[in-house]
Design a protein that fits this description.
The protein has about 325 residues and is an alpha+beta fold. The protein has helices spanning about 15-20, 40-60, 70-95, 110-145, 195-225, 240-250, 280-285, and strands at about 1-5, 150-155, 160-170, 175, 190-195, 265-270, 275, 295-300. The radius of gyration is 21 Å and the shape is globular.
C-alpha cells in the first residue's frame, strides 16, 4: 500500500483523517448526545498521545546507554496509544449518528455502530486488520497473558541492531518467542527489530487513518448526501510531525535477517512530500546492507523457576 502526504498535495504532513475532520459541518454532529468531544477534538487528543509516544520511544532508542526497563515502558505506551487511536476512530464515527438510532446501552463504539450499519463496520475492520492484528496481539498478550518483553541485540560489521520478542511458554514449560506473534525463519525463532518496528508503526498509523477517513466519507454520503473531497489545509503541528519522521528515518537501516524478506516498510521524505510504502520497493531493499554473520545477545529476566529457554536466531526449535 502507498500513501503520500505533503504541503502541495495535502497542505500538511498530518494524516488524511485530519483534513476530513477539520472541514465538517456542525449540523451533522451528535457528539453532545453521546457525551463526547467534537470529532476533531477526539482526534487531536488521540493523535497527540500517539506522536508523544513516538517521541518518547525515539528518545530511548537514541540514548548512548540502554535502559531496557524504560524502553519497555516507552514501547508499551506507543502500542497502547495506537490501540486507543483505533478505538477513538469508532468514537469519531459514532458522532455522526443520533443516540436514538440504537435503543440499548452498548459500551463499545464499534458494536454500537454495527447495530446501525454492520456491513460498513465489517468492511472497515477488514481493511485495517493487516495493520492492527500484530499490534493487538502484543498488547493483549502483555496486558492479559503475563507475556513479557525480552530484548535482542545483534552485532555485525554494519553495527548493532536492537529489538525484542514477546515471551510465550510451550507445553513443556520452555519459554520461547510467542509463536502467534513471531514467525519462524529457517527453523529458527525470530524477533522484531526496533529499526523496522518504529517505521512499521508510523506507516500503520497513516494507513489506518486513511481507512478511517474513507469510512467517514461513506457515512457522510450515505446519511447526509455529502460527497466529501479533501482540501489542502495548513497545520500548526507540521514541524513536530516532520521532526518525528526525520528521526525515524535516522534509525539505522539494519534489520534482523528474516525482516529483509518479509516486507520492509519504507518512508521517503523529499521536497516537502512524505511517502509511506509497505512493502518497500525491491530496489530499496536490494541496496540495504544485509549482514550474513552476526553475534547475538539476549537480555531477559529470570523467574527463579524456569530452566529452559528457546532463543531467537538459534537453530533447533
Amino acid at each position: 500500500m502507498y500513501i503520500a502526504r505533503g504541503i502541495k498535495s495535502s497542505g500538511n504532513y498530518n494524516t488524511e483523517l485530519y483534513n476530513i475532520l477539520i472541514n465538517l459541518p456542525n449540523n451533522i454532529l451528535f457528539h453532545n448526545e453521546h457525551q463526547l468531544r467534537e470529532p476533531l477534538g477526539i482526534y487531536s487528543v488521540s493523535i497527540s498521545r500517539v506522536f508523544r509516544a513516538f517521541e518518547n520511544m525515539l528518545e530511548e532508542l537514541e540514548r548512548s546507554s540502554r535502559n531496557f526497563e524504560k524502553i519497555d515502558l516507552a514501547h508499551k505506551e506507543l502500542l497502547d496509544s495506537l490501540m486507543a487511536y483505533i478505538d477513538d476512530g469508532y468514537l469519531i464515527m459514532k458522532c455522526f449518528y443520533p443516540k436514538c438510532k440504537v435503543n440499548e446501552e452498548i459500551i463499545f463504539a464499534d458494536k454500537w455502530l454495527k447495530k446501525i450499519d454492520k456491513p460498513l463496520v465489517e468492511e472497515y475492520k477488514r481493511n485495517i486488520e493487516p495493520y492492527r492484528s500484530k499490534l493487538a496481539l502484543i498488547v493483549n498478550k502483555t496486558k492479559h497473558n503475563h507475556a513479557r518483553y525480552c530484548h535482542v541485540e545483534t552485532t555485525s560489521i554494519f553495527g548493532k541492531t536492537l529489538g525484542y520478542y514477546i515471551e510465550g511458554v510451550n507445553k513443556n514449560g520452555v519459554i520461547e518467542p510467542n509463536k502467534e506473534i513471531h514467525q519462524t525463519y529457517n527453523g529458527m525463532f525470530t524477533a522484531i527489530s526496533y529499526n523496522k518496528d518504529i517505521r512499521d508503526q508510523m506507516i500503520n498509523l497513516y494507513f489506518i487513518s486513511h481507512y478511517t477517513a474513507e469510512t467517514i466519507k461513506k457515512i457522510l454520503l450515505k446519511n447526509y448526501n455529502i460527497r466529501f473531497h479533501e482540501v489542502t489545509l495548513s497545520n500548526d503541528g507540521d514541524n513536530r510531525i516532520i521532526d518525528i519522521l526525520n528521526r525515524i528515518n535516522s534509525l539505522k537501516e539494519i534489520f534482523f535477517p528474516d525482516e529483509y524478506i518479509n516486507g520492509l516498510p519504507q518512508i521517503t521524505i523529499k521536497d516537502q512530500l512524505v511517502e509511506f510504502r509497505k512493502p518497500a520497493y525491491k530496489s530499496y531493499v536490494s541496496k540495504l546492507s544485509q549482514p550474513t554473520k552476526f553475534k547475538i545477545q539476549v537480555v531477559m529476566n529470570g523467574d527463579g523457576v524456569t530452566k529452559s529457554w528457546s532463543l531467537p536466531y538459534f537453530k533447533g526449535l
